[in-house]
Specification:
single chain; alpha/beta; Aspartate Aminotransferase, domain 1; 8-stranded mixed β-sheet; binds glutamine; transferase; PLP-dependent transferase
């Protein structure tokens, strides 16, 4: 790792006491020091009446019967205290009951399920548990930005394999048109490759990986003995009758796969930070050892609430109703994009749409803040759209390595985890983009 120069060289007296202690060199890796995209496009930096379709969180509450369970937990003594590092037994049992059948197995709540402080911490703990310095981790681009520092903080080396977008000329592309080049994937594998990250449904493309794609990834994982981390936090959000295939259920894959889940996405509770990992004892046990030393345990009252939520989802037909609501939200936004005449990727899962913003023109001398200068064109375009039409989004080059920035620069990511009225209002405002579009030849 590169050595880090302190602003105050050792042994030299200085009256400047603002940076006495050099911080760790690991912060110089994995873009940890760059301002993250969520902070740049945070509502606090944008006009107060800007409609936020940027960071993916809902503008509606979790179901009443889930928040009621949270209140009940807060009013009971035991859930106000530490939980077992594995997670509360009631929640592990509820996960087993809800998801066991989807894994075609009787899950063991002692050794095959681990509750984590959000999906992020679960993934971080897997990296801590399994990576040696220099181990390579393959991730498909665009990738959820947090993977990168989570890998580098643990000594790993990210290796990028792009999902290839459909050509700009293609009419009405869907998320399924973003393709893996399997030769490219094979060539990315080296003797140091330890893991591959799969994310289905995908953030930010909305791609639902097909069984065939997952089978091909699985075959490579078998051939090269790779650990597969399957981030499936949007597993309850698939549209157009798409099938969610869990790579852990493909032949032989249970033994090398850890599947990541999230209460935040499932119950509109992204700030609760309750997630989980499902996998074989050979993966869960070392990950528990790491997680115990990182956070010790996840917050207890909200684990109880999520347990109650999962216990009641079938009775309330919650996931069935919720996915219909999301499909309606998606369609409101897509219809607005159709009216503008801009190309977008029709998402088959998750709650994001990639809008092709390469035809949105803006003046070079627009008063852009420092935070977006020197970044991809999409940073400026998304900033311009937020300021001029009043709808915020996330620039997609953030989800690419520097070398592949140009692929991401064409897109802005719009989140539709908002109520229909908000999406209609955003759709109305977005018509204002027509006057900033490149004239068609
Ligand atoms: N997962 C959410 C998104 O992609 C938020 C991520 C974050 O804020 N770190 O919008």
């Amino acid at each position: 790792m590169a050595s880090v120069k302190s602003d105050i060289p050792n042994g030299i007296k200085s009256s400047d006491r603002s940076a006495l202690i050099p911080f760790s060199s690991r912060l110089r890796e994995g873009r940890a020091l760059a301002q993250d995209v969520w902070s740049i496009f945070n509502a606090a930096n944008l006009p107060s009446d800007c409609i936020n379709l940027g960071q993916g969180y809902m503008n509606f509450a979790p179901p009443k019967w889930v928040t009621k369970a949270a209140e009940d937990a807060l009013n009971t003594v035991s859930p106000n205290h530490y939980s077992h590092p594995k997670g509360r037994p009631r929640l592990r049992q509820a996960i087993k009951d809800q998801y066991g059948a989807q894994f075609n197995r009787e899950l063991d709540i002692e050794t095959e399920i681990l509750i984590t402080s959000g999906a992020n911490e679960g993934q971080y703990s897997v990296f801590t548990a399994f990576l040696e310095a220099g181990d390579e981790v393959i991730m498909f681009e665009p990738f959820f930005d947090q993977y990168l520092p989570s890998v580098t903080f643990n000594g790993g080396k990210p290796v990028y394999v792009p999902l290839h977008p459909p050509p700009h000329s293609q009419a009405k592309p869907t998320s399924n048109d973003w393709k893996i080049d399997f030769d490219e994937l094979r060539h990315a594998i080296t003797p140091r490759t330890k893991m591959i990250i799969v994310n289905t449904p995908h953030n930010p493309v909305g791609k639902v990986f097909t069984r065939t794609e997952l089978e091909k990834i699985a075959a490579l994982a078998e051939e090269f003995n790779l650990l597969v981390m399957s981030d499936e936090v949007y597993d309850c959000l698939l549209y157009d009758n798409k099938e969610h295939v869990r790579i852990a259920t493909l032949p032989g894959m249970w033994d090398r796969t850890v599947t990541v889940g999230s209460a935040g996405k499932s119950f509109a509770a992204t700030g609760w930070r309750v997630g989980w990992l499902i996998g074989p004892p050979s993966i869960i046990t070392p990950t528990l050892a790491a997680s115990t030393r990182i956070v010790f345990c996840t917050n207890s009252p909200l684990q109880e609430a999520v347990a109650a939520g999962l216990e009641l989802v079938n009775q309330h037909k919650f996931f069935e109703t919720q996915v219909k609501e999301y499909q309606e939200r998606r369609d409101v936004l897509l219809e607005a994009f159709d009216r503008i005449g801009l190309q977008y990727t029709h998402p088959e899962g998750s709650y994001f749409v990639l809008l092709d913003i390469s035809d949105v023109v803006f003046p070079d001398d627009y008063p852009f803040p420092k935070s977006v200068q020197g970044r991809g064109r999409d940073f400026k375009a998304c900033w311009f759209i937020a300021m001029e039409v009043g709808v915020s989004s996330i620039p997609v080059s953030e989800f690419y390595c520097e070398e592949h920035t140009s692929i991401g620069e064409s897109y802005g990511r719009f989140a539709f985890c908002k109520d229909v009225d908000t999406l209609k209002a955003a759709g109305g405002r977005l018509q204002g983009l027509k006057k900033f579009m490149k004239a068609k030849p």
